[in-house]
Design a protein that fits this description.
97 residues; mainly alpha; 5 helices; globular
Length: 97
């Protein structure tokens, strides 16, 4: 009997505010803009692009494009989307060793 597998999708595991915040925090700590956009896209898919589109006033097509792995969302888009998630950006001083 062959074992069936399914590709792992982060969106399947982003089921609450704490999970969403932890996931996004890890992406921001990495600092790779494409990873950050993709992580925000994962959360957007978990929440539902249609609902996110309605909450932000941005079209679903522009959200899919901006939040893809190859996307490059503007800061305004990022702020609107994070606000819809109930998450905010926060600046912290980095400790220098």
């Amino acid at each position: 009997m062959a074992v069936k597998t399914k590709a792992w999708d982060a969106a399947d595991h982003l089921d609450g505010p704490a999970a969403i915040a932890a996931y996004l925090e890890a992406a921001f700590e990495d600092g790779d803009p494409q990873l950050i956009a993709a992580a925000i896209g994962d959360v957007a898919r978990a929440r539902g692009m249609k609902a996110l589109s309605e909450e932000t006033g941005l079209s679903r097509e522009s959200l899919y494009r901006a939040l893809s792995e190859d996307g490059n969302p503007g800061l305004g888009t990022v702020i609107k989307v994070l606000r819809a998630f109930g998450v905010r950006l926060e600046a912290k001083a980095e400790e220098i060793a």
